Amino acid sequence: MKSRPLLASLAAAALLLGGCATHQVGMEGSSTTVSRPMSDLSPGTPAESSARVHVDLGMAYFEIGRYDVALDEARIALASRPDYAPAYHLLGLAYMLIEDNGAARDNFERALSQAPGDPDFNNSYGWFLCTQGQERQGVERLAIAARNPYYRYQTRPLTNAGLCYRRLKDDAAAEVQFMRAVQADPANGDALYQLADIAYRAGRYQEARNHLIQLHQQQGPSAPSAWLGLRTERRLGNGDAEQSYASQLRSRFAESKETQLLNQGVFE
Fold first, then answer.
1. 27 vs 182: CA distance, rounded Å
2. 13: Cβ contacts below 8 Å, ≥ 6 apart
3. Contact call for residues 145 and 119 (beta carbons, < 8 A)
4. How many CB atoms lie under 10 A from the CB of residue 26?
5. Structure pTM?
6. What confidence tens digit (pLDDT) does each residue in 76-96 have?
7. Which residues does residue 22 pair with via DSSP β-bridges, in sequence order?
8. Domain boundary residue among 153, 175, 207?
9. Domain that holds residue 37
């Protein structure tokens, strides 16, 4: 299962600009400004309201992969309010997805210069850094987002931190983050799959099975999770369960690479 990084709250949450409520909290011996997500704040001026409308529309287009329109809407928002941080955040997201990494970095940093404590911005920039070979710096940004007491979506940066640690081949640290993500949201399928995969690779097959059962009770199997389930049951010697997964792969995911591996008898 290819895990999708959990970025910002996109079309589902309006990115609003207003007075940021902030306070200081200690973080590992230091002090960091924590602010409410801009998505929780109301616009204070007509210019902010206009910018918000265009960012909301841009986010909706971003969600369906129309990154060109998302960029246009972000620019229109900035014409109304040149310091509108959510517009820079949207630009960063869109440039990241079209792999213009220099522009993505510049716009994420511009958004954070306006709102350094915003957890959505830190989450997105943290994952961006992870994809750029700056995993340690990325994890630090993700930790800022996860620690924000105002953030309703703590499971997102925790999951992204786990994926970041997996890029560093540090499964022990990744597992801690994925467990915290599941504690924050027991329906987090990405984190459950990663926990199952880590347990499988460590030879903890019953534990892997338990995570997959929880995952599949909440959502139907994907080709990768069914393939992991098949291999887990094979390791446990559960032939009937193994064949059940095999049937699902062949009937529902016939063209997948996992089914090709099954048909070739390549299990590892």
1. 23
2. 37, 39, 120
3. yes
4. 9
5. 0.85
6. 999 999 999 999 999 999 999
7. 35
8. 153
9. 23-153
